[in-house]
Amino acid sequence: MSASVVVVGGGITGLTTAYRLREAIPDATITLIEGDDRLGGKIKSSPFAGIDGLDEGADAFLTRVPSAMQLVADLGLTDQLTSPAIGAAFVWWNGMHSIPEGLMLGVPTDLAKLARTDLLTWGGKCRAALEPILPATGVGADSVGRLIRKRFGKQVHERLVDPLVGSIYAADTDRFALTGVPQIFDLANNNRSLLLGARKARRNAPPQAGPIFAAPRTGMATLTNALADSLHASGVSILTGQPVSAIERSGRRWLVDGHAADAVVLATPARTTAPLVAGLSTDAAGVLAAFDHAGVVMVTVALDGGNWPHEFLTKSGYLVPKPVQKWVTAASFASSKWAHWTPSTPENGVILRISLGRDGRDVTHESDEALTTAALDEVSQHVGFDLEPTEIRLGRWPMAFPQYRPGHAKRVHGIESALTRDAAGVFVTGASYHGIGIPACVQQGKSTAALLGKYLANVES
Ligand SMILES: Cc1cc2nc3c(=O)[nH]c(=O)nc-3n(C[C@H](O)[C@H](O)[C@H](O)COP(=O)(O)OP(=O)(O)OC[C@H]3O[C@@H](n4cnc5c(N)ncnc54)[C@H](O)[C@@H]3O)c2cc1C
């Protein structure tokens, strides 16, 4: 009899797990169950301002980590990729300031370039300049904020690293694990000076083969739709609109809301996963239930391009550091960043994606009116004139980003060990565990499919 697997969760991780499992075990019976009415999870593209697929959530993925590029190639989508036209951004600190050149995720690699910015005071620059001669700082505290402040002082942290890293994960870097930002963790772990280590890493990096970010021209959902099409074609049953509420043991097998399986994959956010495993492993459920997830809101607006300042056309957007932040944490000048998101009519000439809320400032429960007003008022203040949108879209992402608190890696190891011990055959995977970005999720889908393959081979023998 062929093995049967239930995958819970139809985001990029669950879809990739099912796809790679189908490749590895062609005759397995695979059922993917998604609670929402649509697949894709945090990936969603929809029409806006005359553009067919303008992303509501993730809008790109890193090409440096090969897993997502490989998946795109396997799905035959490489020809459909495009990349941002512009990378440079501003930081808003009571006015727009260009982000200095020579940073690696906000970590300075070049003091001369840092000296030229007006974003830091001379006191802040002098403090940062001490970094190369400081003794080593251990990585034991496992906090991005603590490490950066110790090495470079308060201003590099609050005006560069915290806004950059914080905007990627909706994080407060003082409460975010170093291991959750592998680029900075590796720098700190392998070098006494982060600045000298980052400079060396830049020098030794192979010549960039292509752009750093990529996305399908028709929106990120092209990727999840192609996965779903491939799964359908290969006989995977996909059920949507069916939130799973219970997993029970049935001899050596499992019952997932009545669906029998030899193995179960939970590709769902950690906090949501906790009640699903509560009856199987109290240790795993306890750790999962303690996870924090930050919610964000994305307000997308189209504006008449006539008023848009010329100097903004060469930037991809701006970040708002916490000391000067209200609800808006960042705004992407989406129509400048992406050449294919340039609307055809001048009335909709500029598209902004405005992000609100983060860890420690949850705004997802606020009314549509309060959120739209805050987005327009704050961005009007930042750009220096009143925004008068011709079109507005509001997207809520409660539990958008899992927060990797200090000690995250140990906690994840604890969950995985407890499940192996108490509920062998039940696996957790996805953004809550070994990386939040899309390439990390795709990689986890692949690794989980490999683990499943091994587990099923052992069970059968
Ligand atoms: C606004 C935003 C912008 C982002 N931008 C980027 C970006 O530009 N680049 C990048 O790399 N990453 C970005 N990310 C992060 C990235 O998109 C996510 O981390 C990733 O897509 C998560 O994938 P996942 O499959 O692990 O989880 P999810 O996408 O959360 O999928 C989990 C799925 O499980 C389902 N589910 C939950 N509970 C149940 C249940 N009980 N039964 C059945 N189904 C259930 C959910 O409905 C969901 O579909 C962004 C995220 C957000 C929110």
Keywords:
alpha+beta, Polyamine Oxidase, Chain A, domain 2, protoporphyrinogen ix oxidase, domain 3, 3 domains, seven-stranded mixed sheet, five-stranded parallel sheet, binds flavin-adenine dinucleotide
Secondary-structure arrangement, i.e. CATH architecture of the largest domain: 3-Layer(bba) Sandwich
Largest sheet: 7 strands, mixed
The strand count comes to 22
Strand content: 15-25%
Compute the CA-based radius of gyration. 23 Å
CATH homologous superfamily grouping of the largest domain: FAD/NAD(P)-binding domain
> How are the strands of the largest sheet arranged?
8-7-18-19-20-17-21
Helical content stands at 25-40%
Low-confidence stretches: none
What does this structure look like?
By secondary structure, the protein is an alpha+beta fold. The chain has three domains: 166 residues, FAD/NAD(P)-binding domain (3-Layer(bba) Sandwich), CATH 3.50.50; 151 residues, Polyamine Oxidase, Chain A, domain 2 (Alpha-Beta Complex); 104 residues, protoporphyrinogen ix oxidase, domain 3 (Orthogonal Bundle), CATH 1.10.3110. Helices cover 36% and strands 21% of the residues. It contains 15 helices and 22 strands. The strands form six sheets. A seven-stranded mixed β-sheet has the order 8-7-18-19-20-17-21. Helix 5 runs antiparallel to helix 6 and helix 11 packs antiparallel against helix 14. The two termini are 12 Å apart. The chain binds flavin-adenine dinucleotide. Flavin-adenine dinucleotide binds next to helix 1, strand 17, strand 21 and helix 15.
